[in-house]
Amino acid sequence: MARLKAGVIGYPIKHSVSPAMQQAAFDHLGLPVEYRAWEVRPEELESFAAGLRGGGWLGVNVTIPHKEAILPLLDRLSPEAAAVGAVNTVAVADGKLAGHNTDVAGFLAGLPPGTDLRGGRALIIGAGGAAAAVVLGLVQLGLAEIGVFNRHPDRAARLLTRFAGQDRAVRLRVVRPDELCAYARDCILVVNCTPVGTVGTAFAGQMPIPPECLAAGSFAYDLVYNPPETPWLRAAQNRGARPVSGLTMLVHQGAAAFRLWTGREAPVDVMFEAARRALSEFDDASVSDGGRIPR
Ligand code: NAP
């Protein structure tokens, strides 16, 4: 049987975890799919997307810098992709391209089973594409308030306007630098949606927020997954907070993409193992681009 093609597109893309993680899943289930990293420059995106329609493709993951640029090149968007304004997974069927955002499901699946955030406050640090997916995930969980802090506050305000029209009871607000620590102490969940703490970057040893600002028993969720246990997560745990590694989200967003493409349950444990192994094989020098590691 001819092998179908799949992969991850980005620029740069050399050190992506996705090929190891997804190929392990396809091989584990004996599916005839070859998944590889495709380096696609911004000026090549349109012709690459047109090529996906030509047959033989199952789909692709999409990473920096194409997550927003690919939107107008697709035939339809899932409600999540439309709400977030970014696509991280394209599914190909009958020459048509459907855009999805599995970061939303991946983020939610990363929360420990049984987590109940109803009536609480959450703080999101960062206001980029990942933060948008996290806000969309969190508005579904019955929180009373979601605060967003960003070093450039105008971007946080723009992010919240995107969700302001949602018919939800949750309050959305921008958190100012002078109130950050006190606000965090009142939160049941703090999520780092910046690359701060990523190995091999200028801010590798830094923390998105001082760990002493976290309340004991609250969740500290770091979207950074290299290393899987960041200095912030270690410090948060020492303060009595409950750490959640970005590796969990990484694997679950990949598993959600796998399900979209194949209609099969993803072998999550196999994907975890493969992602861990791939990450351990990267050395510090291999990480660049401001800490945004292509998936
Ligand atoms: P993005 O759209 O480029 O946004 C980056 C955000 O981080 C912006 O809010 C930016 O602030 C802030 N930031 C960047 N450098 C900073 C610094 N040195 N200090 C403070 N803030 C800084 O990127 P993204 O797609 O949202 O991704 C953000 C992070 O999440 C990346 O590390 C990415 O690898 C990770 N991620 C992980 C997963 C997963 O599955 N675990 C999924 C998606 C993303 P300004 O607006 O002020 O520039």
**Number of DSSP E strands:** 12
Mean pLDDT, as a whole number?
A: 93
Helix share bin:
25-40%
Give the neighbour order of strands across the main sheet: 2-1-3-5-6-4
Rg, rounded, reads: 19 Å
What is the beta-strand fraction? 15-25%
Distance between the termini: 28 Å
Which overall shape is indicated by the principal axes computed on the Cα atoms?
A: globular
What kind of sheet is the major sheet? 6 strands, mixed
Structural class: alpha/beta
Bound molecules: NADP nicotinamide-adenine-dinucleotide phosphate
H/E element string? Answer: EHEHEEHEEHEHEHEHEEHEHH
User: Low-confidence stretches at least 5 residues in length (pLDDT < 50)?
Assistant: 284-293
Please tally the helical runs, counting DSSP H or I stretches of 4 or more residues: 10
Topology diagram in text:
Elements: E1 4-10, H1 18-28, E2 33-39, H2 45-52, E3 57-62, E4 76-77, H3 79-84, E5 89-93, E6 96-100, H4 103-110, E7 121-125, H5 129-138, E8 145-149, H6 153-164, E9 171-174, H7 180-185, E10 189-192, E11 219-222, H8 231-238, E12 242-245, H9 246-262, H10 268-281
Parallel strand pairs: 1-2, 1-3, 4-6, 7-8, 7-10, 8-9, 10-11, 11-12
Antiparallel strand pairs: 3-5, 5-6
The structure holds NADP nicotinamide-adenine-dinucleotide phosphate.
